[in-house]
Amino acid sequence: MRSLEHAEHRTRQAPRRDPAPSRIAYRLHRLWLTPFVRMALRVGLPAFVLAFGVGLYLADTERREALGSVYTDLHERLKNRPEFLVNLLSVEGASPELSEAVRNTLALPLPQSSLDLDLEAARARIATLSAVATVDVRVQSGGILQVVIQERVPAFVWRDAAGIWLVDETGMRVAEVSNRNDRADLPLIVGPGAEKAIAEARQILASAGPLLPRLRGLVRMGERRWDIVLDRDQRILLPVRQPVLALERLIALDQAQDLLGRDVLAVDLRLQSRPSLRLSPYALAEMRRLRGIIPAENEL
Hints:
It is a single chain. By secondary structure, the chain is α/β, with parallel strands linked by helices. It has 3 domains: 20-59, no CATH class; 82-151, Ubiquitin-like (UB roll), CATH 3.10.20; 156-299, Rossmann fold. The protein is 41% helix and 23% strand. Strands 8-7-6-9-10-11-12-13-14 form a 9-stranded mixed beta sheet. A 3-stranded mixed beta sheet has the order 2-5-4. Strands 1-3 form a two-stranded antiparallel ribbon. Helix 7 packs parallel to helix 8. It starts with a helix and ends in a 9-residue tail after the last helix.
């Protein structure tokens, strides 16, 4: 009985344990709930340990060289597999001359692994050829390097001080020719800056209609306007503004009165309100004779 009372007395005298966590435990628990700390411990710490171990392993020069040799050997084996080898170069959409120029420009040693080919650099090299409008380079199955070209179409023969060129509708040079007669089927434009006014030249030619059989070419004058050169050394001087309208008026006058069929050297249309004619010396003398005009002494 006495022992039970003694035990009960001790139980009453013992202090109760506080269930609340300590201050340090509370702070550690709150810190663990921070997303950054949890991420650092779950990801950062293993990554650091792994990187540290790899760094220790690669600190040795012989180990690094051995790994480099293994990588080089695997890379060589992979790129030299038959499915990656390019054995043939195919050029489509180009004339034989341009096709040969493309092959010479690329100068690719075949067979060659497609992993070693820089397709963008090859496309850039081909695009430097003046006759190439657009180009696409791709590797096809079967070990074929395919080059698809859209070739510029010559629209004019342009002659300047540097030579004779074929130019397309935009004025871009396509190729150089040694003689104008090499492309007698194309109209001739002459003079500095003529290639920059191709659009206006096309409009003039489209309106020249009845004069086309006699037309020898267009001459750009002062990079501002055009002269039309016909056979028999006749020339039509077009104005800077509205040259097509002036030409159409001249054609209507020629069809009505056969103006260009006469002994006329030039028709000056630069002043549209007052066009003028330049006659040949014989025609001028004959006109003066008919009108009874006595030539001056210095004209005799």
